[in-house]
Amino acid sequence: MTDSRRRRGLMTASALLGGVLMLSACSGGGDSGASDGGGGSSQAKADEAAAKKSSEAQIKITPADGSDNASINNSAAVTVSKGTLTTVTMTTAEGTAVEGALSADKTSWKPTGQLERSTTYKVAASAKDSAGLEAHENASFTTVSPDNSFIGNFTPEDGSTVGVGMPVSINFNKEITNKAAVQKGVTVTSTSGQEVVCHWFSTQRMDCRPEDYWKENSTVTVKLALDGVEGASGVFGVQQKTVTFKIGRNQVSYVDAQTKQMKITHNGAVIKTIPISAGSPENKTYEGQMVMSEKFKETRMNGATVGFTDDDGKGEYDIKDVPHAIRLTNSGTFVHGNYWGAKSVFGSVNTSHGCVGLSDTKGANDTGTAGYWFFTNSIVGDVVVVKNTGDKTVAPDNGLNGWNMDWAQWKAGSAV
Predict the structure, then answer these.
(1) CB 356 within 8 A of CB 335
(2) φ and ψ at 155, to 5 degrees?
(3) What CA–CA distance (Å, rounded) separates 122 from 124?
(4) Which residues contact 376 (CB under 8 A, 6 or more apart)?
(5) By C-alpha distance, which of 297, 294, 362 is closest to 333?
(6) Under a CB-based contact definition with an 8 Å cutoff, are residues 290 and 384 in contact?
(7) How would you label 402-412 residue by residue, b for 16+ Cβ within 10 Å and e otherwise?
(8) What distance in Å separates the CA atoms of residue 3 and residue 16, rounded to the nearest whole number?
(9) What is the DSSP letter of 268?
């Protein structure tokens, strides 16, 4: 046999032997696998038996464990799928219990009241599946802090009846840089169907109104959906509420500083004319449309608080019992009763420091005076239009006086 044939024979034998070894290896592996498989089958059965003892109920607690800046309104909730809740407890970190309510089908739970800010809460929940097997879940979260949250103080009050000029005015306790997001969270509608647009006077004040005065006897609804809205970097809203107020009769009063008369109208028809005394030539009354924002049966008026001081720095006047005062501007313009002036000035001379004075009696109890009548027949939100004083038009943000901007200007101040 030649070397080449011998080599081929050896290669063939090696190949056959390798094949036998390979088959033996696979076959042996199969036997070993069968043995392991038997052990695996036992383990699978054990796992299956253990699984049968675990509840199928799946509990979810929100916010997630460890969350911070959580909402004080909507964030806390417990839900379960493939089962029903059996117990839910929620406490502060100090152990104070939080009241909550379970849904009728026992698949969800929520606190019944608003949570506190800057507070850590702990939630523990248990549930059962259809086989009666229990599941448990725990979580802890912290609500948003005052430093990381904002609220809006709004006018008018919920349930109030106001005049046709009353805007919705919201003053935020933090500067708002994301105005569009916040404005989208505020919805103002009226049963009159009037379009309502909001206008930002600053980073902290937003007023909303229609193009013309509200329709009398309509109802306005304000929805504040600001919970969780990021008004500025790291600063979130916490309010979620609905406010409604009613619009009363359409009363607008017109003050003419030249004729020194005020005409009170209902739906444009004059119902009464009252003699007045407006600001003197040295202290003219603002002109423009002014909305009544506050009413006081009696109040103190000190000139020093509005810049009228004498050489000693004291107020040019200090009257502690001004009767029937109705505020028109933040800077101190009022329609008010006047008992200290001569009766002859009303209707003939402008003598005030910028207010509109009406004849009145000290004590604010004389029902026969012009001051008493006007105070009694006016409500917050009524409009007083002042003309012919020779002074500038009142600034739109000086009080609730946005009506002194035309509709195009007003809409230009919207962020959406």
Answers:
(1) yes
(2) -130, 140
(3) 7
(4) none
(5) 294
(6) yes
(7) bbbbeeeebee
(8) 20
(9) T
Element spanning 47, H or E: helix 3-52
Structure tokens at 363: 């004590």
**CA pair distance 294, 398, nearest whole angstrom:** 14
Which residues have C-beta within 8 Å of that of residue 264, sequence separation ≥ 6?
Answer: 251, 253, 270, 271, 272, 273, 274, 374, 377
Name the pLDDT band for 310 (thresholds 50, 70, 90). Answer: low
Please confirm whether the linkage preceding 63 is cis (ω < 30° from 0): yes
Angle (CA) 153-156-160 rounded to 5° is 135
How far is the CA of 55 from the CAs of 78, 221, 286, in angstroms? 17, 47, 75
- DSSP for 144-200, written as a single string: PPGGGEE-EEEES-TT-EE-TT--EEEEESS--S-HHHHHHTEEEEETT---EEEEE
Q: d(Cα 83, Cα 106) in Å, to the nearest integer? A: 9
DSSP state of 309: B
Distances, alpha carbon 374 to alpha carbons 3, 221, 321, 364, in Å: 133, 29, 17, 12
Q: What was the pLDDT predicted at 311?
A: 57
Residue 2, pLDDT score: 44
> Hey, CA dihedral for 170, 172, 177, 180, is it positive or negative?
negative
Mean of per-residue pLDDT scores for the chain: 88
- The per-residue pLDDT for range 26-54, each reduced to its tens digit, is 233 344 444 444 445 565 555 555 555 79
- HSE-up of residue 199 (Cα within 13 Å, Cβ side): 24
228-265 tens-digit pLDDT:
999 999 999 999 999 999 999 999 999 999 999 999 99
What ranges make up the beta strands (E) of 218-331?
219-225, 230-232, 235-237, 240-247, 251-256, 261-266, 269-275, 288-291, 294-302, 318-327
Let me know: does 59 contact 52? Beta carbons within 8 Å. Answer: no
Give phi and psi for 181, each to the nearest 5.
-65, -40
Task: For residue 33, give the H/E element and its range.
Answer: helix 3-52
At residue 28, φ and ψ (nearest 5 deg) are -65, -40
